[in-house]
């Protein structure tokens, strides 16, 4: 029997992750081209490794979209919501560890989704000239977020974060 229960703890964790994603995306951002580099994606990866997929999708999308809304990038709210939700999909929340071999490898498709998603968004909004500049920034962001995710996930696993839930 498939059980899909609404769990208050997942809603609370989703809200917490969305808030952390918003803050880490908004604070410490580095302007590049038509957007900015940030480390908020690393927390999206963590959320996706802790929460069931529907909750992680909402936390990721809301956190990224809120940062764009607060940061004056209203034009990006919808594309960011979709892209950030999609980058949470490759990860798995199954098991007692965050940093599994599978989750460590999933930073690659998540990075590809980030770079290609914002490339497509840039093409639609600005054409070729405005889009090429963003490629480097999006690639740096994807790599930086992957490295930070691995460091944070290892630390949280050492602290037995998932076992304490």
Can you put this structure into words, describing what you see?
The protein is mainly alpha-helical. The protein contains 7 helices and 2 strands. 70% of the residues lie in helices and 4% in strands. Helix 1 (8-26) packs parallel to helix 3, helix 2 (40-50) runs antiparallel to helix 3 and helix 2 crosses helix 7. The protein has a two-stranded antiparallel sheet with strand order 1-2. The protein is globular, with a radius of gyration of 15 Å. The chain has helices at residues 8-26, 40-50, 53-70, 77-88, 101-105, 107-126, 128-158; strands at 30-32, 35-37. It has a single domain (8-164), classed as Orthogonal Bundle (Arp2/3 complex 21 kDa subunit ARPC3).
- Under CATH, the topology is which? Arp2/3 complex 21 kDa subunit ARPC3
State the CATH architecture.
Answer: Orthogonal Bundle
The sequence of SSEs as H and E is HEEHHHHHH
Residues in helices, as a percent range:
over 70%
Please give the count of helices.
7
**Compute the gyration radius: what is it?**
15 Å
State the end-to-end CA separation: 24 Å
Strand order of the largest sheet: 1-2
Proportion in β-strands: under 5%
Q: What shape does the CA trace take?
A: globular
How is the quaternary structure best described? Answer: single chain
The residue-averaged pLDDT reads: 91
Low-confidence stretches are none
| Coarse structural class | mainly alpha
- Overall tally of domains: 1
Number of strands: 2
The biggest beta sheet is recorded as:
2 strands, antiparallel
């Amino acid at each position: 029997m498939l059980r899909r229960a609404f769990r208050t703890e997942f809603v609370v964790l989703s809200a917490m992750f969305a808030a952390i994603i918003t803050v880490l995306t908004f604070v410490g951002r580095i302007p590049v081209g038509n957007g900015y580099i940030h480390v908020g994606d690393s927390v999206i990866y963590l959320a996706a490794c802790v929460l069931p997929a529907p909750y992680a999708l909402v936390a990721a999308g809301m956190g990224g979209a809120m940062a764009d809304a607060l940061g004056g990038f209203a034009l990006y709210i919808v594309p960011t919501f979709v892209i950030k939700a999609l980058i949470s999909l490759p990860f798995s929340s199954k098991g007692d560890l965050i940093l599994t071999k599978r989750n460590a490898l999933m930073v690659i498709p998540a990075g590809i989704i980030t770079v290609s998603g914002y490339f497509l968004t840039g093409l639609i909004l600005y054409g070729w000239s405005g889009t090429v500049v963003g490629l480097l920034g999006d690639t740096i962001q994807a790599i930086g977020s992957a490295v930070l995710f691995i460091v944070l996930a290892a630390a949280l696993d050492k602290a037995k974060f998932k076992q304490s839930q």
